[in-house]
TrEMBL record:
Reactions this protein catalyses: tRNA(Ile) + L-isoleucine + ATP = L-isoleucyl-tRNA(Ile) + AMP + diphosphate
PROSITE patterns recorded: AA_TRNA_LIGASE_I, FIMBRIAL_USHER
Function as written in the Swiss-Prot or TrEMBL entry: Catalyzes the attachment of isoleucine to tRNA(Ile). As IleRS can inadvertently accommodate and process structurally similar amino acids such as valine, to avoid such errors it has two additional distinct tRNA(Ile)-dependent editing activities. One activity is designated as 'pretransfer' editing and involves the hydrolysis of activated Val-AMP. The other activity is designated 'posttransfer' editing and involves deacylation of mischarged Val-tRNA(Ile).
Record's protein name: Isoleucine--tRNA ligase
């Protein structure tokens, strides 16, 4: 029998002794599936109510919600707006304030009425044949349904608010308050009825406010028209014609004067030649601005010769005939001075129709001209208009009518037409029907900008408001400075009526406070439909005869309604306050909600309803083009959520500079998803690294290594940056700072350096305990700082932390406040040192990347380079363990000049690296290559540190088993 050698014991597998990250927080977010469950959880726990209860003693912060229209699914602009508001509110709440959010909707006006009219038109019905209360009820139901739909869509974005108790402009209380606000202006003298030219939609048959007007290109017919002189102030003008130019031929029946500029140099011109087809007559004499004679000659296809120069002032007293004299237009047409007349284009003379232009109206009022009523509310000439009765300026569908061609033909037949052409120019259109508008002088209700000093009060309030960005102040200031009186009446059906009575005898509105109070009280009990269903006597009371009064049925401008929300939302709801801390809407609201709220509040309370105003731009597609369904380049928030999740959309909102126009599209969203992944992986790594955390591990900052104290310094800096970004409403900076901190300071540096200690040090080692303590601070800060933006992801991470037993705390991350970061964590001297350390590390890392690329090494732990440092660098990095920081198995530091051939970086002078292989064998546990591997008999494949760690673990396990 022969001896057989003993079989060698198999090498030990040390994998189980390495503290690899361990967490159930998944790498793949699955946001579209996960977010609805979190929303349900918040609903079940009554999160909004809990937030209010816990914050009721804190300082109040109110962001007042500007009401969107309840007339369709939300679009990407809605999503941008509501997410911004939610981020602001959540941030303020976590800063330690009480930040309630009451969402609201604008439910009256054309956008909704138009939808109901479309339904009637499709059925071949006329909405005017439907009883008005029935029509209004259909509008109300339509709006209520879309309030419900939009509330769900906004909620899906993660927007937290009082969704069970929103405000709408169509509740009895709101309608009552709106009419009471109208009455305030009536009683203080600011409201009056007057005939003025207003922008009128013949499609919607109503006046429009400037905020309801869009400007689009329109191709108009242009005409040059002769006005024969009948009373000459100068002998040279006898037999001559004054020539006007206009882009609105249909206004010629309304002409009552011709305006000239007193400072303009005019000339009397003779026609010396005319091309074939020209309407000019050789020998006739025309009066024109001298600077425009050549362009008129070109348009008329004629040759003009200057006969005599004329000063503008010499034209005073000249009277012309209307070019259609003898056909129902037999009045004189005086030449009148006008400050609005220029010689930039046209002829230097402005045809003046007081019923169809603001400047024309002003001239007419100054000189007592008749204001003829020529065009009806439907865009059709009245029957009394000579030659053009029944002609359409624009048809009911918004297309050009026959008025312009008929006027052209009549002028040509009468010998008044000198020339005509076509011009493409910017022209006002209705924002709802997209049809061109006309200026039309009609009796309307106005709020005076001058009575009670409203204009000056509003301008002063603008200067007392904080505008973000600052240029918003200039925009709204110039608008208020130059705006005309506010036309608040609309000739529509769906809205709050301007509930007044006008005395038939003198046309004056009844200002009896008792009657006005009765109107308000009935509206509060029954809503504004009562104005149409109750007899006038119910409102007037016993003291007045209803037959002596006319009841006003015009409805109020919807901008007046939404501009009154400060009264029936901020003042009426006890959890809110007035003025609000912030109004936040798109930049178009400088002429919309910001503007109307300012005027309404200043006119009734003498100040703005807000302390600050933040505006955002519009959302374009990823190529910078305006979105439109016809182009197929729209991005629906519902589609983004379905593919990526709401948190990706929220991250896009704060990652872009929303104060300017921003872009969105598939490539941009994918980039946001990548950015999100880096943030999510930071939280996942922290959760994994903190598995089995116990408070017994926690170390005070004073006992930590320098690297950990540097991270605490960065946390202190970040805390300041986060709070300042929120204070400045600079959410773009907030997102950028958080991402860079996670990606650059943590993932690419701190986590990388401390991986070895975290995985391989003894659990009770100071370095590992310090690392884990710092990671707890990081996790607590990051989940709080990210919560306003990534509201779902931060919640998911916080719930996982609670499940892991890492901390006791509130059951939602949103019930937390931002952690109080100790001021003494800040250490600028330490930060300056580690800035140098990281610069040196970049050079070493760069040198190793070269060797990794050429396959000399596979891992940085196979290297032990020599680092050459100039004297200042040696002093700067001090006694830092650069081997640890650079993640090598060894590193030699030599002071002195950098040798030729060493690896260097241009921006880090006097630092060079010469590559060297690490001597020794690789440790099976930490993978460092060290000469000491094999020196511990019980663990021949480990380095001494790992051998000690394993022995400690073994002893701990044995003690536990015993």
């Amino acid at each position: 029998m022969t001896d057989t050698p003993e079989k060698a014991a198999p090498a030990r597998d040390y994998k189980t002794t390495v503290f690899l990250p361990r967490t159930e927080f998944p790498m793949r977010a699955g946001l579209p599936q996960k977010e609805p469950g979190l929303l349900q959880r918040w609903d079940e726990m009554g999160l909004y109510r809990r937030l209010r209860e816990e914050a009721k003693e804190r300082p109040l912060y109110v962001l007042h919600d500007g009401p969107p229209y309840a007339n369709g699914n939300i679009h990407i602009g809605h999503a941008l707006n509501k997410i911004l508001k939610d981020v602001v509110n959540r941030s303020q709440q976590m800063l330690g304030r009480n930040a309630p959010y009451v969402p609201g909707w604008d439910c009256h006006g054309l956008p909704i009425e138009w939808k109901i009219e479309e339904k009637y038109r499709a059925a071949g019905k006329d909405k005017d044949e439907v009883p008005i209360v029935q029509f209004r009820d259909e509008c109300r139901k339509f709006a209520a349904d879309w309030v419900r739909v939009q509330a769900g869509e906004f909620r899906r974005l993660g927007v937290e608010g009082d969704w069970d108790n929103p405000y709408t402009t169509m509740t009895n209380r709101a309608e009552s308050r709106i009419v009471r606000e109208i009455h305030r202006f009536l009683l203080n003298g600011g409201l009056y009825k007057g005939a003025k030219p207003v922008l009128w939609s013949v499609v919607e048959k109503t006046a429009l406010a400037e905020a309801e007007v869009e400007y689009h290109d329109l191709t108009s017919t242009t005409i040059w028209v002769r006005f024969p002189v009948v009373t000459a102030t100068l002998p040279a003008l006898d037999g001559a014609s004054v020539v006007i130019w206009t882009t609105t031929p249909w206004t010629m029946p309304g002409n009552r004067a011709v305006a000239y500029g007193e400072e303009i140099g005019y000339g009397l011109y003779a026609v010396t030649a005319a091309e074939e087809g020209s309407l000019a007559r050789v020998g006739e004499r025309l009066v024109l601005a001298r600077t425009l004679a050549d362009s008129v000659a070109a348009g008329a296809k004629a040759t003009l010769s200057l006969v005599q120069e004329l000063d503008g002032t010499a034209l005073a007293g000249t009277v012309c005939a209307h070019p259609l004299r003898g056909q129902g237009y037999d009045f004189d047409v005086p030449l009148l001075p006008g400050d609005h007349v220029t010689d930039d284009a046209g002829t230097g003379f402005v045809h003046t129709a007081p019923g169809h232009g603001e400047e024309d109206f002003d001239v007419g009022r100054r000189f007592g001209l008749e204001v003829p009523q020529t065009v009806g509310p439907d865009g059709r000439f009245y029957d009394h208009v000579p030659l053009f009765a029944g002609a359409w300026v624009y048809k009911p569908d918004g297309r050009h009518g026959d008025a312009n061609p008929r006027v052209l033909d009549a002028l040509k037949a009468a010998g008044g037409l000198l020339a005509h052409g076509r011009l493409k120019h910017s022209y006002p259109h209705s924002w709802r029907s997209k049809a061109p508008l006309i200026f039309r002088t009609t009796p309307q209700w106005f709020i005076s900008m001058e009575t009670n000093g409203l204009r000056q009060t509003a301008l002063a309030a603008i200067d007392q408001t904080t505008w973000v960005p600052p240029q918003g102040r200039n925009r709204i200031h110039s608008m208020v400075e130059s705006r005309p009186d506010w036309c608040i009446s609309r000739q529509r059906a769906w809205g709050v009526p301007i509930a007044l009575f006008v005395r038939k005898s003198d046309g004056q509105p009844l200002k009896d406070p008792a009657v006005l109070e009765r109107i308000g009280a009935i509206f509060e009990a029954e809503g504004s439909d009562s104005w149409y269903s109750r007899p006038p006597a119910d409102f007037l009371g016993d003291g007045y005869d209803p037959d002596e009064f006319e009841q006003v049925f015009d409805i109020v401008d919807v901008w007046f309604e939404s501009g009154s929300t400060h009264a029936f939302v901020l003042e009426d709801r006890p959890e809110l306050k007035r003025p609000a801390d912030l109004y936040l809407e798109g930049s178009d609201q400088h002429r919309g909600w910001f503007h109307s709220s300012l005027l309404e509040s200043c006119g009734t309370r003498g100040r703005a309803p807000y302390e600050a105003v933040l505006t955002h731009g519009f959302t374009l597609d990823q190529n910078g083009e305006k979105m439109s369904k016809s182009k197929g380049n729209t991005v629906a928030p519902q589609d983004v959520i379905k593919e990526f999740g709401a948190d990706i959309l929220r991250l896009w909102v704060v990652s872009t500079d929303f104060t300017e126009d921003q872009r969105i599209g598939p490539k941009i969203l994918q980039a946001q998803a990548d950015l999100y992944r880096r943030l999510r992986n930071t939280l996942r790594y922290l959760l994994g690294a903190l598995a089995d955390w116990t408070e017994a591990e926690r170390l005070p900052a004073a006992e930590m290594p320098e690297l950990e104290r540097w991270v605490l310094h960065r946390l202190a800096e970040m805390d300041g940056a986060v709070r300042q970004s929120i204070a400045d409403y600079d959410l773009h900076r907030l997102a950028t700072e958080l991402h860079n901190f996670c990606a650059v300071d943590l993932s690419a540096f701190y986590f990388d350096v401390r991986k070895d200690s975290l995985y391989c040090d003894r659990p009770d080692s100071v370095r590992r305990r310090a690392t884990r303590t710092v990671m707890v601070h990081l996790f607590e800060c990051l989940t709080a700082w990210l919560a306003p933006v990534l509201c779902f992801t931060a919640e998911e991470a916080w719930l996982e932390w609670l499940k892991q037993g890492g901390a006791t705390g509130p059951e939602s991350v949103h019930l937390r406040l931002f952690p109080e970061v100790p001021a003494d964590w800040r250490d600028d001297a330490l930060a300056a040192k580690w800035q140098k350390v990281r610069a040196v590390r970049r050079v070493v890392t760069g040198a190793l990347e070269v060797k990794r690329a050429d396959k000399t090494i596979g891992s940085s732990l196979q290297a032990a380079p020599t680092l050459h440092l100039g004297g200042a660098w040696v002093e700067g990095v001090g006694d830092t363990d650069l081997t640890e920081v650079c993640i090598t198995s060894g590193l030699i530091v030599l002071e002195g000049p950098v040798p030729a051939g060493a690896f260097t970086l241009p921006d880090v002078p006097d630092v060079g690296v010469v590559f060297g292989h690490a001597p020794g064998d690789r440790c099976d546990r930490c993978w460092k290559v060290l000469p000491e591997v094999g020196s511990v008999a019980d663990h021949p494949t480990l380095c001494t540190r790992c051998a000690e760690a394993v022995d400690h673990l073994d002893a701990t396990a044995a003690g536990g088993a015993a």
